[in-house]
Amino acid sequence: MFETISKGLEGALGFLRGQSKLTESNIREALAAVRQSLLEGDVHYDVAQQFCERVARAAVGQQVLESLKPFEQFVGVVYRELIQLMGPVDHSLGLRKGSVGIIMMCGLQGSGKTTTCGKLARVLESEGWRPLLVAADLQRPAAIDQLKVIGEQLSIPVYSEPPNSDPVRVCQNGVAQAKRQGNIDVVILDTAGRLHVDEALMQELRQIDRSLSPDQVLLVCDAMTGQDAVNSAKAFHDSLELNGVILTKLDGDARGGAALSVKSVTGVPIKYIGVGEQLDKLELFHPDRMASRILGMGDVLTLFEKAQQAFDAEQMAAQQEKLRKGRFTLTDFRDQMQQVKKLGSISQIMKLIPGMGRVADMMSEADMDPEQDLGKIEAIIGSMTDQERDNPEIIDISRRRRIAQGSGTDPAMINKLLKEFAQAQKLMQNMAGQSHLDRLRSLQTMASMGAFDPGAELQFNKQRSVRSEIDRDKKKKLRKEAKKQRKKNRR
Ligand SMILES: Nc1nc2c(ncn2[C@@H]2O[C@H](COP(=O)(O)OP(=O)(O)OP(=O)(O)O)[C@@H](O)[C@H]2O)c(=O)[nH]1
Ligand SMILES: [Mg+2]
């Protein structure tokens, strides 16, 4: 996600690291590089231009803040302006208990409407709403079946009529049925797409809009089409008055131009983002978290939420209990590893941790594969007997050789794993008294102090250097006292 812009901005901002002061000339130079990287990321030209003007104004106004290094100062300005550019977002969909809300999804062909209808229904259901999907795409005969399959996968009802029906009537009938049934709070309409914005499509959508007055008209846009996505968003908004955009396929969007330009060009906020083909890959769009990711500062909050959703609460509680009793074994270690894997690929997770995004990129450039390493660890633990997993200290040379053979690794690797496990065990026992939230909080505090950002001049490092100054003062005092003492002794 956003590799082009992230890399470009990193280069643009990086050269300020070595500067001692923000001056007009180095600001100008940094801005030229920022503009260049935005354009390479396929950001709309006017948007890039205005963005740089705003950053310039804010950066010049900031010169008085002498306590911050130019790099920090400038990154701070870019971060705030990125948030401004993509926000604000009102995530509400105007749903109310006791009435049937209507959400109309529209967009170009293949943008991800049908999939996103399913994803949104799933999200709303998890929030306690009872959704009904309506198959109003009668252009493509297979579209109705596609929605039915999605509905079945999610156990969410789908209203449909034969392919020769009229889409406006289908929507009306679907909503009428939801109201009659009384056990539906929100109807999601999956409408037809076209290859291009054309009058026939707009007319059909306007008719549905007029006859049902949906609470929300959401445009589904494919992020990978860059500026075309932004232009089509503008055309749809001119014709339909959108409440929000759902930007799909962000997982495959290296450039990021659409995400950065949509709000500014159309005035319509992005409410959700699609980050994968699977039905659980829909996230709320948070401009601040996105800005943080773009600048390689990670996104600990999203990671925290993902962890809460993915981890099996009961299993976690059982492991917590074992930790408290100091009985954390290799089996638990493997279980935890499997839980972490549910969050996504290791490189995806790393991108959410401040400062680790660059490391993930470097690893993939160097053809290193953390997934493969994890696979090996799992194979090693899998080749042990229950007894060995519970008491790794019994693993001697011959057992090591057997495990290596069983897991297709070598004995040295098993040694390394056991050593690392012993360290992890100690660390975990220390943390065992803390709640999950406290542990994440301390992680987050460390992150906000910049503990995971290896490049920047950080509060965390600053605190360390303040401490070392104190240490220096202390040592000086001690040396002085020792000198006095020596003089006294001589006398
Ligand atoms: N990688 C990725 N693929 C997605 C995402 N959202 C949708 N897709 C894929 O995009 C393709 C098109 O999705 P559909 O939901 O059929 O798109 P549509 O807009 O309904 O298409 P039409 O009905 O033909 O107009 C499918 O292969 C989806 O799996 C996403 O967020 N990430
Ligand atoms: Mg469709």
Characterise the protein shown here.
The protein contains 22 helices and eight strands. It is α/β, with parallel strands linked by helices and 491 residues long. It folds into four domains: 84 residues, Up-down Bundle (Four Helix Bundle (Hemerythrin (Met), subunit A)), CATH 1.20.120; 195 residues, P-loop containing nucleotide triphosphate hydrolases (Rossmann fold); 147 residues, 434 Repressor (Amino-terminal Domain); 29 residues. The protein is globular, with a radius of gyration of 28 Å.
Total DSSP helices: 22
Q: How many domains would you count in the coordinates?
A: 4
**Could you tell me the radius of gyration in angstroms?**
28 Å
> Which structural class do you get from the secondary structure elements?
alpha/beta
CATH architecture of the largest domain: 3-Layer(aba) Sandwich
Helix and strand arrangement:
Blueprint: H1 3-14, H2 24-40, H3 45-61, H4 70-86, E1 101-106, H5 113-126, E2 131-136, H6 141-154, E3 158-159, H7 167-181, E4 186-191, H8 199-212, E5 216-222, H9 227-240, E6 244-248, H10 257-266, E7 270-274, E8 282-284, H11 287-294, H12 300-310, H13 313-324, H14 330-341, H15 346-352, H16 356-365, H17 370-382, H18 386-390, H19 397-407, H20 411-431, H21 436-448, H22 459-490
Parallel strand pairs: 1-4, 1-5, 2-3, 2-4, 5-6, 6-7
Antiparallel strand pairs: 7-8
Helix pairs in contact: 1-2, 2-3, 3-4, 4-11, 5-6, 7-8, 9-10, 14-17, 15-16, 17-19, 19-20
